[in-house]
Amino acid sequence: MSNMAMKPWVVQKFGGTSVGKFPRQIAEDIINIYDKDHSVVAVCSARSTNIKAEGTTTRLLEATDQALKLGGNFKKIIETIRADHLNAAKTHIPNDELVEALERDINRECDEAIKILEASRILDEISNRTMDLVLSVGEKLSCMFMAAVITSTGRKAVYVDFSRLRTGPGDINQEFYDVLKDKMADEIHKIGDAIPVVTGFFGLVPGGLISTVGRGYTDLCAALIAVGLRAEELQIWKEVDGIFSADPRKVPTARLLDQITPEEAAELTYYGSEVIHPFTMEQVIQARIPIRIKNVMRPKGQGTRIFPENDSIPGDETPLHPPIPVSPSFVNLQQAAKGPTAVTSKSNILVLNIHSNKTRKSHGFLAHVFGVLDKWKLVVDLISTSEVHVSMAIHAAVPDVPLADALVELRKFGSVDVTRKLCIVSLVGTQMKQLVGIAGKMFTTLAEAGVNLEMISQGASEINISCVVDERDSLKAVNVLHHRLLSQPLSLH
Ligand SMILES: Nc1ncnc2c1ncn2[C@@H]1O[C@H](COP(=O)(O)OP(=O)(O)O)[C@@H](O)[C@H]1O
Ligand SMILES: N[C@@H](CC(=O)OP(=O)(O)O)C(=O)O
């Protein structure tokens, strides 16, 4: 078995839009190239032909909704998914035999999805488990398709379904992940010489994968596999060259960053630059495996490497003190001017201001407020408090229903007002820890540009300074901050 011939493992994760738009490039220009001197594992998300919001996972979620609605047409949605995959098979696979086998597999999966949804309609209930069963169809179809595409290039690939891996009972915690990593690696070791094409959907996760991990779970699946296999690198292939100093769609002068720390990557992800699922970093970095973000459209680009600043890679077991530079770019990074690394913005934010009616002590006030937020599953992105006042920025993508209910309960503790159509703007950078005056510079830069600050929050994370501004000022805010604090030598005086 060539996997046993000690070629280093590389785990490559392909997002849904990449599988949708560039399946042959992925097979020919990426997998087959790395396959020459690595043992490659490909992990794929459900296909999206255009954007994620119109992709297979979004459609499957809509189908589960329709199944519980009177007269809801979930079958039509599954038929759209079926037609999309049958069409992709014919378009991208120049081999009749492979196409016929794939068509049978696609039809079987889609028929099964319909049966599950019909059963849910009869029961008038969709449990977390049922939800997962339906959603996993997206990754199954995508991986069956990619395995056939790769096989059609002359390199044998096998479809690997991780949606029903049994890990035993228990909560989803580090121990659970550790067992899962080993199990995933064992399954992949069994495969031998063919390229494993693994469903980014993994189960059986207590509480359900979509409820506990959320959208973007394929990144985490790839991370767990990379750790289980002790891979040389985890590659996240996207349609962007890597992580930039700002969203390149919003800031034309944004620079590609050649290396950032996992903490920075996590902050950027939480605050609007959703380049990688935030749970990914923790698993991979503990095992000291570098993550590289790369572009499917420009496979030769270096991308962005996510790795801790003062760490060495596995196999490089020399002492960590003094820190060992792991690459020339790392040295450059160390010597570079110590400003923020990136600026990011998160839209669709509302701010809740609650002023206590002083009927209880302040700890009781905050405890009650958080009790209500917990009950209605409202996630707070930023918070700022005084003894009798609390302001909280909340992502308003949550449906309005729980918010309205939560407001009724919160009004028992004080006066509440809600400001909508806001966005969070954040400066992120590990170097900012030592940078006295950076917050002041950020806020004066915004004030000089005429951007009004609704709320300020600093200090929860030493590497993030955030504020809330009007949504209409979002583009101006990120551009002016990028121009003043990230594009030119930083002067704080
Ligand atoms: N700091 C950033 N660096 C790179 N991309 C960013 C950043 N902030 C936001 N983005 C956006 O994230 C998107 C991620 O790439 P893409 O492959 O299109 O996503 P997905 O895999 O979710 O479909 C890009 O469209 C890019 O504009
Ligand atoms: N298909 C899933 C999982 C995922 O990771 O997607 P992507 O890799 O395309 O972001 C989702 O949309 O959430």
Automatic annotation (TrEMBL):
Residues 427-493 form the ACT domain. It is an enzyme of class 2 (transferase). One of its GO terms (cellular component) is cytosol. It catalyses: L-aspartate + ATP = 4-phospho-L-aspartate + ADP. One of its GO terms (biological process) is homoserine biosynthetic process. One of its GO terms (molecular function) is ATP binding. PROSITE patterns: ACT, ASPARTOKINASE. The keyword Amino-acid biosynthesis applies. InterPro entries: AceGlu_kinase-like_sf, ACT-like_dom_sf, ACT_Aspartokinase, ACT_dom, Asp/Glu/Uridylate_kinase, Asp_kin_monofn, Asp_kinase, Aspartate_kinase_CS. It comes from the Eukaryota. Its EC number is 2.7.2.4. Keywords: Amino-acid biosynthesis, ATP-binding, Kinase, Nucleotide-binding, Threonine biosynthesis, Transferase. Pathway: Amino-acid biosynthesis; L-threonine biosynthesis; L-threonine from L-aspartate: step 1/5; Amino-acid biosynthesis; L-methionine biosynthesis via de novo pathway; L-homoserine from L-aspartate: step 1/3. Phosphorylates aspartate, the first step in the biosynthesis of amino acids that derive from aspartate (the aspartate family of amino acids), including methioinine and threonine, the latter of which is a precursor to isoleucine. Belongs to the aspartokinase family. This is Aspartokinase.
